[in-house]
Amino acid sequence: MNAYVDVTALPAPAYPPHARTYRYDEVDREFLQERIAEFSGQVERRLAGALTEDEFKPLRLMNGLYLQLHAYMYRIAIPYGILNATQLRQLAMIARRWDRGFGHFTTRQNIQFNWTRLEDVPDIMRALADVDMHAIQTSGNCIRNTTTDEYAGASPDEVADPRVYAEIIRQWSTLHPEFTWLPRKFKIAITGAPHDRVALQAHDVGVVVRKNAAGETGFEVWAGGGLGRTPVLARKIRDWVGEDEFLAYLEAVLRVYNALGNRDNIYKARIKILVRDLGDEFAERVEAEFARLPKRKYRLDPEIVDQIASHFAPPPFAALPDNPQAYAQALDGNAEFAAWAKQSVRAHKAPGYASVTISLKPIGGIPGDASAEQMEAVATLAERHSFGEIRVTHVQNLVLPHVRQEDLLAVWDGLRAAGLATPNIGLISDIIACPGMDYCALATARSIPVAQMISERFASLDRQLDIGECFINISGCINACGHHHVGHIGILGVDKRGAESYQITLGGSATNDAAIGELVGPGFAYDAVTDAVETILRTYVAHRAAGERFVDTYRRIGLAPFKEALYAVA
Amino acid sequence: MPLLEDGRLVADDWVTVADDAPLPDPPAILTLARLRAEDLAGRNAPLGLALDPATQPEEIADLLPRLSLVAVLLPKSKDGRAFTQARSLREHHGFQGEIRATGHVLPDQYRMLLRCGVSTVQLPEGADPAVWTRSADLVDIAYQPARDAGAPLGLRRRRLERV
Ligand code: SF4
């Protein structure tokens, strides 16, 4: 026999309540050191010529290292977007010491450094390991970082805590022996709230944690979503999987995909193409595989769930009244604070608390960028006011999940001092943009400068408030990393005979009413995009009925009025 | 070509037979088409199948009782269908014979192949088996169940030992 034996069952650690993030123990740390040793060895073999670049590439990608336009980009995992203050400080240190003093938060709730030198990577890996972080599986054709609701554990509408299951997926998918060489990358999103804040249908697999009438936990599973050059929304493949069979079911989905996914054409290799082509047969095949899996082996033990759940125990909330006088007075006395609070402060499940969303979209700035100083300022505010906890959102902002309402003014002051108090969450300048031509080797057009131009055009807060909720998403090529298909206004930069041309789609959505945007017509030149957005918004304002958001008006009146306004010959 | 088993190079008793070549006496690895076409009634020497990555193990389930070896193929190192095939052969079909990984296999995949039920790897000429075992043994903590022997542990973390 030639195989492995599970020699020892390693204990799951028990931790004090509210660990903030999943806390590593000796076993997890040992694993991380082994993994660092493995990658260091791979780098050595590459340098010695024992591995070709072709062979090395997937190995380095699985360790988060991309080759970009000007340098290596190093993408660091922030599992389901949760950080503690110590980790955020360490990221600031890395930005300062090994990058240009900035980090870039991504739509996958990760962070990437755009100016990494290959020779520094081992040092960065060690610095990350010091705070229980790594870059494993942030790239490559494997199961990537699972994303979840940035308000998990805080949102009043939460049915079940998705972080527990996101961590379970993280552990299960870590160096999975069978699913590390998939046809393409594989992204899972999970939510425990009825309101979709994770873009469920834009993922390879989307999971909704639910409770049944008996109070048991189960999962609704969607599969086959993805953007890229062929955008497809996921379809539901299961209404309910019991908690103990969750991993068995995921195994079945991945097995069907690994066996049948396209291997010849990378543009057809995502699970969305398989699901689209097989239709109902996909779910049937998954069911067949699921039915014959040895359930005992893949059983998710309730004891393990409890142990992992203990890491996400609620913080020790004080008994506080909602809307304390101090907060009400501050709102009354300070219009600027009130304007910020209106956009950034969100209801919390614990009375007297709130979640604060921190905009990384200053007018004219680079969406998702934060300087080392800003990261440190947020870490300090988190320590003082949010039990040391920070979240990264899938729209490239940050969240302080548990802030006392009476402290909101102090938090705002702290954010203002760090240049982080832009009151534009959910407004037109809260733009998602991919790195585009400024960094990305695949780009066909600039993306960041377009975001900057638009945000400058709509700099006036009054104007933004008048327009109301409207999401702009910008991608610098057809790969759609800026998720333009699901933006209310989607902008895709392509190359048209040597010049940048921007195609605009309208009416996309990544939430419960998920939809792929419709192309409005021929593309616009680089210096005409902002005017086009302006025209679109003017058209909306002219047509809107009371209380309608941009996307509501669009759905009611359709493409025609916008087309007319954009392309009418003067 | 050298054959890796238990971390050591071992003699390969098998010959891989082209579809138009005569069937030899020693243990022979055939394609599926040949296996289906050939009248094997009188043959007692062990038979092996070169399983195409696109063929599902279900499609060859009827042949498995006659097979002593199934060779799975990684046409490129990043084409990982063989991992699922191996696991399915063991887990669903109870295949007890040799599962041999062939094609473009990397030392970095050795541990994962073993965990999926592969028993031997066909190495490129001149390969150093020590590189393979070192790579396999580097990470000995696993977070999930696979084809490993031992008690079912579900998601419990476990320490692996190569046997
Ligand atoms: S959408 Fe294109 S340009 Fe933008 S990051 Fe992705 S690959 Fe690069």
Automatic annotation (TrEMBL), chain A:
Official protein name in the record: Nitrite/sulfite reductase
Domain Nitrite/sulphite reductase 4Fe-4S: 139-290, 433-566
Nitrite/Sulfite reductase ferredoxin-like domain ranges (all copies): 72-130, 366-418
One Pfam family named in its UniProt record: NIR_SIR_ferr
InterPro entries: NIR_SIR_4Fe-4S, NiRdtase/SiRdtase_haem-b_fer, Nit/Sulf_reduc_fer-like_dom_sf, NO2/SO3_Rdtase_4Fe4S_dom, NO2/SO3_Rdtase_4Fe4S_sf
GO molecular function, one term: oxidoreductase activity
Keywords: 4Fe-4S, Heme, Iron, Iron-sulfur, Metal-binding, Oxidoreductase
Presence of the UniProt keyword Iron-sulfur in the record: yes
From TrEMBL, chain B:
Superkingdom assignment: Bacteria
Protein name: DUF934 domain-containing protein
Organism, scientific name: Dankookia rubra
Lineage: Bacteria, Pseudomonadati, Pseudomonadota, Alphaproteobacteria, Acetobacterales
